Amino acid sequence: MFEQAFKNIDDILHKDAGSSSELDYTEQTSWLLFLKYLDALEQDRAMEAELEGRPYTFILEDAFRWEHWAAPKTADGRMDHHKAMSGDDLRDFVNIRLFPYLSGFKRRATGSNTIEYKIGEIFSEIKNKIQSGYNLREIVEIIDGLRFRSQTEKHELSHLYEAKIKNMGNAGRNGGEYYTPRPLIRAIVQVVAPKVGEKIYDGAVGSAGFLCEAFDYLKAQSGLTTGDMQTLQERTFYGKEKKSLAYVIAIMNMILHGIDAPNIVHTNTLAENLMDIQPKDRVDVVLANPPFGGKERKEVQQNFPIKTGETAFLFLQHFIRMLKAGGRAGVVIKNTFLSNTDNASVSLRKLLLEDCNLHTVLDLPGGTFQGAGVKTVVLFFDKGAPTRKVWYYQLNPGRNMGKTNPLNDNDLAEFVALQKTKADSPQSWTVDVSGIDTHTYDLSAKNPNGGDEKVLRSPEEILDEIAALDAESAEVLAVIRGLL
């Protein structure tokens, strides 16, 4: 049901002049889904209040509730096409009345952790890009037909929403930063092993994949009480995100996973001075894949003891500072971090080894991140004790990674199993830090067992990739021609 609905919505958006890419499709679907979700949440709360004999005040005024502007119904529950706006009337209502009203919640909300504030944030950050009111009417009717009140429905919808984010990540350069392969996130969560009651943080939240997977991991623990579930809902998951679209998608993704009012703040994490982070701000667990390759301005670099323009290196300093003593982290970073000879890289490795126990490095093969074109590693560290030994694991799935054969959970099963005891194997080895050169602090992942051999690609794979790149080029040219 959901899959066909999403496909139909994409087809309509593809025809609309206002949406030109997978990023736009996901953004536009998101705000409409959010309002439909909000309506379902309000209906449930109103029904609950009625059963308990207490009054319920709706968050949204009548004129702006889904059932009024989007889906007015006849007495028998069918869409009332006489009352339902369409065409320019609908588009103008959404642009001129609905969005300004909803964005106003940011000023009116009692606090930033309320659903009212989230409504205000979302509708201050995005705008309706659907130019045809007739297309908008069609999409509204598809979304109105979706039900996501039961856990099964929510699960299916969240699964498909993840697929949309993945497609968005594959759609282009700037989409790639939104998507970390879920099997990799699940393996990182398993190794870091968060517990109920701990604060879990991602300062580069993207589409909130780490927080959603951590929530699923904790929710699956046996013996959870009602109090535990409330702790998971309200006081466990925290994130920050700089970009508007990612911020909206993160909130929507967490809501669909079952977290009603996500603690996600729309801010540039790196604009915060490291010295301003107080003990009360600190967290137990950091799970993150910060953007790399970005260049931060001089005034942002002033917030950090180790000055560098490389975004990921600034984030790493932020994460170390954000952890409580004994806190644990799993952070994805470019593999060149382990060996770069510039002052910032050397100083940062020294800081990591002296202030934290960098106990595990997972070395990932090229192609793990589609479209990124860089090799990455995952650093697992605990704060508060220096590093004595580092256990390395070199992931070698025995095939070339790519769009058609991405990373899966089985690829990481051996890593997760061996990491518990940090056992040696053809793919894993241990390095004693006392033997490391203190001028360079080089931590390169060099497998002493000769596990570095390249997986040679078959001629079919190479030809497939050439064909895919040709098709992509043709699509881009067609778009450019359409603009001329």
From TrEMBL:
Residues 154-450 form the DNA methylase adenine-specific domain. Its EC number is 2.1.1.72. It comes from the Bacteria. Residues 7-142 form the N6 adenine-specific DNA methyltransferase N-terminal domain. It is an enzyme of class 2 (transferase). GO terms for biological process: DNA restriction-modification system; methylation. This is site-specific DNA-methyltransferase (adenine-specific). It comes from Acidithiobacillus thiooxidans ATCC 19377.
